[in-house]
Amino acid sequence: RQGAGLDIVNTLLVAFHKGAQIPDTYGLLPIHWACAQNATIAIIEALLRAYPDATQVKDKWGRTPYSLALASTNAEKDAIMEALNHEPSYWSMSLIQEVHNLRGELDQQFLKEQELEKRAFSMQNKLNEVTAASLTATQ
Length: 139
Description:
Layout: H1 6-15, H2 30-36, H3 41-50, H4 65-70, H5 77-85, H6 88-138
Helix pairs in contact: 1-3, 2-3, 3-5, 3-6
């Protein structure tokens, strides 16, 4: 069975980040399902950033995401096991760094937009001058 792609998971986490912390009726968090259903390492990492303490949560049968990943046939099992072994603070810091990086990117984009607005305003002024000069010359 094919799971959701990273873009979908990220969109859901942005729209409702607390969803990563809500278990289903069996006590399974999204990360439990991801580990059991052979999700990619990128999806596992996204879920860990959203809820770093998820690695300690046991489902109704006492299984952790780690135990589900260990029993999986995932081709990325080694990387997933390593990710699940990180302390929750690792993912918190990772998220803080990601937010910092995104803020930097937004700042750069804002500066570029301001520069483009200045250029557009300047070009509009020149167009107005040319139009006014053209109207004066034809009169």
